[in-house]
Amino acid sequence: QKKAFPTDFLWGSASAAYQVEGAWDEDGKGPSMWDSFTKIPGKTFKGTNGDVAVDHYHRYKEDIALMAKQGLKAYRFSISWPRIYPQGKGEVNEAGLVFYDQLIDELIANQIEPVLTLYHWDAPQALADEYGAWESREMIEDFNQYCITLYKRYGDRVKYWVSLNEQNYNSNHAFITAMHPPGVHDRKRFYEANHIAFLANAKAIESFRQYVPNGKIGPSFAYSPSYPASSQPRDMLAYENAEEFQNNWWLDTYCLGHYPQVALRYLQEHDLAPTFEEGDIELLTKGIPDFVGVNYYQTITYEFNPIDGVAEGKMNTTGQKGSNEDTGRPGLYKTTPNGHLETSNWDWAIDPIGLRIGLRRITSRYGLPVFITENGLGEFDKLEADGSIQDDYRIDYLRSHLEQCREAIADGVDLIGYCSWSFTDLLSWLNGYQKRYGFVYINRDEDSEKDMRRIPKKSYYWYQQVIESNGEQ
Ligand code: BGP
What we know:
Elements: E1 10-14, H1 17-20, H2 33-37, H3 56-70, E2 74-78, H4 81-84, H5 94-109, E3 113-119, H6 125-131, H7 138-154, E4 160-165, H8 167-175, H9 187-211, E5 216-222, E6 226-228, H10 233-256, H11 261-269, H12 280-285, E7 292-296, E8 300-303, E9 328-329, E10 333-335, H13 352-366, E11 370-375, H14 392-411, E12 415-421, E13 440-442, E14 454-456, H15 458-468
Parallel strand pairs: 1-2, 1-12, 2-3, 3-4, 4-5, 5-7, 6-8, 7-11, 11-12
Antiparallel strand pairs: 8-10, 9-10, 13-14
Helix pairs in contact: 3-5, 7-9, 8-9, 13-14
The structure holds 6-O-phosphono-beta-D-galactopyranose.
């Protein structure tokens, strides 16, 4: 049988509101947690923030024209909650809804399927001030109301919806490494906030069934499949533990409606387990998604970690290769570099086969369709004197990952689409503007917004061919 992509495969690309829009206080928008957090000195690379970002709010038509020219079939974007509800709840800001009306209509007019992310980390600051955002159960109903507003407004035009983006990665930085708001080191709060987010996710999916009965919804998970560093039994056990705590904790809860037993037991014994209230277990089972959104960048290799071993390491946010430090959970596992894999300048392991492995694991364990909602390479790009950007390394990265997608489909994975990260260059949360992912170069950097010109890179034309040939390229 020929290994091929389905004819209706969604060839896409992705972004997120805070990383592209800018216009942070325009047309009635309220501040998000990120608007506040990035203003605290030292929190981001060179103090960069999304106040202006890449000005997509004002230039979305130009950006969509470039998508159309490339032949893009799907565009994943997120809605800024505080644009819709400046206070997080209560009075809705009509101007915010109108902006996304226009964006969605422009996509549809260009035959591009909108893929709408409900939440990509920019919670209203008002809710953080009032009750601590994800640390209070009030968030469940406020998020639900916000989602219902969007379901009613866009449900007739938008088929594919992403509920929470990378709850795992975001909460890890929010409550363990302290690199995302609220920026604390507290594992107990980490598990409590995650539990609330799981409930909010399930509630939002339950409402979705009512308001958008013909739509498809799923969370996007930051999926780094685990490898054991060796076949030594204690490394194998470390790897099993890492799978349980780093992946299955989220994937099982989303897709099976309950936490994995071994991890839950461990957390109960260490007084870290979340607080269950009546109805929680039932609600979780109502949140089973239509597909699993996978954001894939790398695999992570684990080895045994002694009880007095590594806890928190340091993350490379500068692009200085080799500045990453290993992290772990004492007594259970720690990360270790994989000598078989090349890394990017940000020390992310490049592993296309790992994507195939991950897709197969999800298929076997949950039997759900998969939508790759992010995959890409963040690198320094150079604008040449002749005005071109020769990003062959990005083409190599994307091509090798797409090859593995094709293999995974032949293995039996029901893959409905692939969104590269990202369409244009954009703000990298912790790494500023110098870490670029786009098919389209944006002429700006940390220090200067320059003229924000959009310049298609070599990879833009390559992906155009990929789409045109339905992945034969
Ligand atoms: C994911 C996020 C994206 C994006 C991407 C690249 O975790 O969902 O928003 O930022 O990773 O990450 P980074 O910008 O840190 O390189």
